[in-house]
């Protein structure tokens, strides 16, 4: 343990700025972020980042003043403050989903060599915000938007649509089933749809094997925001001729990891399948 006031931010690597007080403050914030719901006592917090208690107390006092840290009662342990929620909300509001997702989509596209798309729900239909089509000769090229009633398809016939449908509240799902343009094409009972939703939420991904169209397969995972709400679905689409258990598993792993990374950019906390339900 060092107390030479050379603070090291946990998880922040070895990068430092030229302003020591900022480096020390960031080190304290990183330590608080990893402290869990119980927070940290002053002695443990300063020891974790290599600061003298007197220095740590001064910096923490300033953080508390600005709402970036707080103290629990009566233990007087330090935790992150409410200002972080406001800052994160502002970050999300200022962030265009498609722009934030672009580098994640490109990395997934390069890694899988299959078509990648980011989808949202609009008026009970699945709409693709961004699409990167596979460069392979045989590929899947999804429609950018689906707005006509004539070709309306229930979202739960696609991998991305299953994610988006399962991410809605029960009342919202019921309203969709009752009033959506595709309601006449629903070929599952309410009980079967409930089972589908439970399965998708539990496993954290969804698949489609020629359910929407012959020859089309897909695997998708949820993209969540800082509240934990599903705001989009990240999907990889591929021709059924390339389907195999090994290929499907590789794509599933890649899309789940990418969706998790994108969710983190939107402020989402790590989440398990069971927590999602």
Notable characteristics:
2 domains, elongated, single chain, disordered C terminus, Beta-Lactamase, alpha+beta, two-stranded antiparallel sheet, 16% strand, Arc Repressor Mutant, subunit A, five-stranded antiparallel beta sheet
Compose a concise summary of this entry.
This protein has 277 residues and is of the alpha+beta class. Helices cover 43% and strands 16% of the residues. The chain has two domains: 62 residues, Winged helix-like DNA-binding domain superfamily/Winged helix DNA-binding domain (Arc Repressor Mutant, subunit A, Orthogonal Bundle); 183 residues, Beta-Lactamase, CATH 3.30.450.40.
Low-confidence segments: 9-14, 144-150, 272-277
Largest sheet: 5 strands, antiparallel
Binned strand content:
15-25%
Spatial strand order of the main sheet: 4-3-7-6-5
Structural class: alpha+beta
Element-level helix/strand string: HHHEEHHEEHHHEEEHH
CATH topology tier name of the largest domain: Beta-Lactamase
Distance between the termini: 42 Å
- Please tally the helical runs, counting DSSP H or I stretches of 4 or more residues: 10
Organism: Occultella aeris
Protein name: Transcriptional regulator KdgR
InterPro entries: GAF-like_dom_sf, HTH_MetabolicPath_Reg, Tscrpt_reg_IclR_C, Tscrpt_reg_IclR_N, WH-like_DNA-bd_sf, WH_DNA-bd_sf
Pfam family, one: HTH_IclR
Tell me what you see in this structure.
- The protein is α+β, with helices and mostly antiparallel strands.
- It has 2 domains: 20-81, Arc Repressor Mutant, subunit A, CATH 1.10.10; 94-276, Beta-Lactamase.
- The chain has helices at residues 20-33, 42-49, 53-65, 83-94, 97-112, 159-166, 170-179, 190-203, 245-265, 273-276; strands spanning 69-71, 78-80, 115-122, 125-132, 206-209, 216-224, 230-239.
- β3 and β4 form a beta hairpin.
- The radius of gyration is 23 Å and the shape is elongated.
């Amino acid at each position: 343990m060092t107390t030479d006031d050379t603070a090291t931010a946990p998880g922040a690597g070895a990068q430092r700025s030229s302003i020591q007080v900022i480096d020390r403050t960031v080190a304290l914030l990183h330590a608080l972020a990893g402290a869990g719901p119980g927070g940290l006592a002053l002695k443990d917090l300063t020891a974790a980042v290599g600061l003298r208690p007197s220095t740590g107390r001064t910096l923490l006092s300033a953080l508390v003043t600005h709402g970036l840290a707080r103290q629990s009662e009566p233990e007087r342990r330090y935790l992150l403050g409410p200002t972080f929620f406001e800052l994160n909300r502002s970050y999300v509001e200022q962030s265009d989903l498609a722009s934030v997702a672009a580098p994640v989509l490109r990395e997934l596209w390069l890694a899988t060599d299959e078509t990648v798309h980011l989808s949202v729900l609009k008026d009970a239909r699945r709409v693709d915000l961004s699409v990167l089509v596979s460069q392979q000769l045989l590929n899947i090229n999804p429609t950018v938007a689906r707005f006509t009633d004539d070709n309306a398809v229930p979202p739960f016939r696609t991998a991305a649509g299953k994610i988006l449908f399962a991410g809605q509240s029960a009342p919202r799902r019921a309203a969709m089933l009752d009033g959506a343009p595709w309601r006449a094409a629903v070929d599952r009972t309410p009980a079967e749809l409930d089972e589908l939703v439970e399965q998708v939420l539990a496993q954290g991904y969804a698949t489609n094997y020629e359910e929407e169209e012959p020859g089309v397969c897909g695997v998708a995972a949820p993209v969540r925001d800082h509240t934990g709400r599903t705001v989009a679905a990240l999907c990889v689409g591929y021709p059924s001729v390339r389907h195999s258990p090994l290929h499907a598993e590789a794509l599933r792993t890649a899309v789940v990891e990418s969706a998790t990374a994108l969710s983190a950019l939107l402020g989402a906390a790590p989440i398990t399948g069971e927590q999602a339900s």
